Amino acid sequence: MSEISREILTVGDLNRAIAQSLEDRFDTVWVSGEISNFKAYDSGHWYFSLKDEEGQIRCVMFRGRNGQVGFMPQSGDLVEVSANLGMYVPRGDIQLTIQTLRRAGMGGLYEAFLKLKAKLAREGLFDEERKREIPTHPKSIGIITSPQAAALKDVLSTLARRAPHIPIVIYPTLVQGPDAPAGIIAALKAADKENAVDVILLVRGGGSIEDLWAFNDEQLAYAIANSNIPVVSGVGHETDFTIADFVADLRAPTPTGAAELAAPRKDQLLQELDAIKQALLQRINQRVEREAQTLDQLALRLSHALPNPDRMREQITSWQQRLNQAWSVRIENWKRNQSHYQSQIEMLNPQRTLERGYAVILSKSKHEGQEQLHAVRKPSELNTKQGFQVRLAEGQAEVQFAEVKQ
Description:
alpha/beta; Rossmann fold; about 25% strand
């Protein structure tokens, strides 16, 4: 076959053919090596190289996969990866597309970690809706850790610096070894029973995956989820992830970070109180000014509603004068009427008739044993048998008629 008759491939076609050949030739492979040139992009994808004494190969781990890793890799970490072998066509670089990544030598533990993590995730223990809010101003803080742990000293010094006014309750327990999970669970239950703290800090310093394995216990995960008190997890270093971190209400990168997240700074609290004070004073001043304005308006309305006091006194004086005048007129009228009535009564007085020269003859009679007098009006009432009384203007006389002629 001549060179002219042979098919001429483009670089892209050749690279795609090589990539297809690699994908067909190699199934999922497990590779161990040291991470170098690790970069985490804003997209969430990881790019790095795996190397050993004999060579290196480029690697990529996409966001949908690296979210299951449980720690943030760094250059220099020894890891084991399961990956598909292929080629990045644009550059012609052979690369590994990584499906899973774990620390080297921790295959069994890491597999158990991933299995339990997936199970608890399906049960909803990691859901954000389940997590409780951490109090911004706790009245007291509980710490679950080992009394000998260096992390405890860091936490206590941080709390003393940030919030020396907040009481602290320590629930001592083992944080490493086969008995540690049961001890941590007992400490959580004791805190729940006492109900003496508003938030719990579950803390331990950094270490290997074996050192931190107590915090990957399934029963401990359930105990944290069922705690009535919010839990802040501060286990290991920033790149260490445990099951306790995922199920806790809040994860801190370090024990010191847990203390910082749980306790507000003293100076910050004072600033907040001062801001509240200023706001209250402003509201009070505004209210006082508003009420003063209302009072002025009411006073103005009242001054228009009521007459002037001087005017009222003048009216009272005028009314008194008019009343006195009316009373005087009424008294004078009464006096005139009284004189008129007296003169009429005087005119009807029988004594006045007697004074004009007249006399009245009174007949005597007895009624029910008592003597009575009545005026004689007719001559037929006169007789010679009984006595009569003649009443004159200046006295009276007892008479008896000797003869009566009619």
